[in-house]
Amino acid sequence: MRPHDPIAGEDRGAPETARPAIVLTGFGPFPGVPDNATALLVPRLAKAARDLFPAYDVVAEILPTEWIAAPQKLADLLARPGTVLALHFGVSRQAEGFQIELVGRNQCKAMADAAGNTPAVECLLEDGPAELASTLPAERIVQRLTKLGVPARTSTDAGGFLCNALLYHSLAAAGTLDKPHLVGFVHLPADLTGHGADGRRPHPDCRLDMRGAIAGGLEIIAACLESIGSALPVKPG
Q1: What is the mean pLDDT of residues 187-203?
Q2: 98 contacts 88 by C-beta, under 8 angstroms
Q3: What are residue 41's phi and psi, to 5 degrees?
Q4: At residue 34, what are phi and psi to the nearest 5 degrees?
Q5: Which domains does the chain have, with CATH numbers?
Q6: In this structure, are residues 165 and 183 in contact, taking their beta carbons and an 8 Å threshold?
Q7: What distance in Å separates the CA atoms of residue 77 and residue 103, rounded to the nearest whole number?
Q8: What are phi and psi of 183, to 5 degrees?
Q9: 103-105 and 131-133 as β-strands: parallel, antiparallel, unpaired?
Q10: Are 103 and 155 in contact (CB under 8 A)?
Q11: Distance of CA 61 to CAs 57, 65, 78, 200, Å?
Q12: Nearest one of 98, 100, 111 to 150, comparing CA atoms
C-alpha cells in the first residue's frame, strides 16, 4: 500500500444563498467492536441537529473502518462548499464519556481494518507535518458538557488507528481551503451500545447513555457555531 494521498479540499466559492453545512461522521464495525455506537448515534444526532439548527445543512455519514475507503469517502464529503464544521465520532475502550481529541498525528499502527488490510507504511501523508491540532473550542466544549452533567475531558492521544487517521486527514483537508472550517474528533465509550435485548443498550457500568450522547453532541455543535460567530437559529420552544 502506498502512503495515503492528501485529501484535496476545494473551495468552490459557494454562492451567498447556499446554506452553511455541518458534516457529522461515525464509523462502522471493526475487529473487536462488532457494534459501533457511533453508527447509531450519528444519524440520531443529525436528525436532532436539523431540528435545532434549521439554517444549516446537516450531512451525516457512517464511514467504513478502512484505511483507504474512509479517507476517500471523507474527501467526497468535504468537497461540498459551505462547510463550517466537520465533527467526527469514534469509540474507545479508554473513553468514559466524551473524549475531545486535541491532536491528529501523521502516523498509523499496523492494525488490520474492517476489510482485513493493514497499512504498509507508518505515516498517513508523505511529507505531512508530524501533528495537526484540532480546531474545536475544546475548553468551551468541556465546560458545556460538564454543565450538562455528562462526563467529558480532553485527550492528546487519538490512538494509531482510523480515529487518529480520520482526524489528521480532515484537518489536512481543511488547511487547504481559503476559508477553513472547524475540525475535530470525539471519542465515546465503546460500551455505549452492544448490550440489552436489542443490542443497543449501554453496559450497566457505562457512564453515558444514548440520550446523553445526543444531548452532548448538540452541545458540541452549539459551542462550535458560537466560536465562529455563527448565529444559532434554533426553533422556537
Answers
A1: 84
A2: no
A3: -70, -50
A4: -70, -20
A5: 21-227 (3.40.630.20)
A6: no
A7: 21
A8: -135, 135
A9: antiparallel
A10: no
A11: 13, 12, 11, 19
A12: 98
What is the SS3 assignment for 12? coil
Q: Which of 49, 62, 52 is nearest to 22 (CA)?
A: 49
Reported pTM: 0.88
Mind listing the pLDDT tens digit for each residue in 15-74? 445 799 999 999 999 998 988 999 999 999 999 999 999 999 999 999 999 999 999 999
In 3D space, the residue among 206, 174, 152, 7 whose CA is nearest the CA of residue 87 turns out to be: 174
Query: What is the spatial distance between Cα 217 and Cα 141, in angstroms, rounded to a whole number?
Result: 10
Beta partners for 162? none
What one-character DSSP code corresponds to residue 188? E
Instruction: Tell me the one-letter amino acid at 62.
Output: I
Calculate the CA dihedral of residues 132, 145, 81, 50 and round it to 10 degrees.
160
Looking up cell 450497566, which residue turns up? 204
- Average pLDDT (81-87) is 94
Q: How many residues does the chain have?
A: 237
Cα–Cα distance, 40 to 5 (Å, whole number): 30
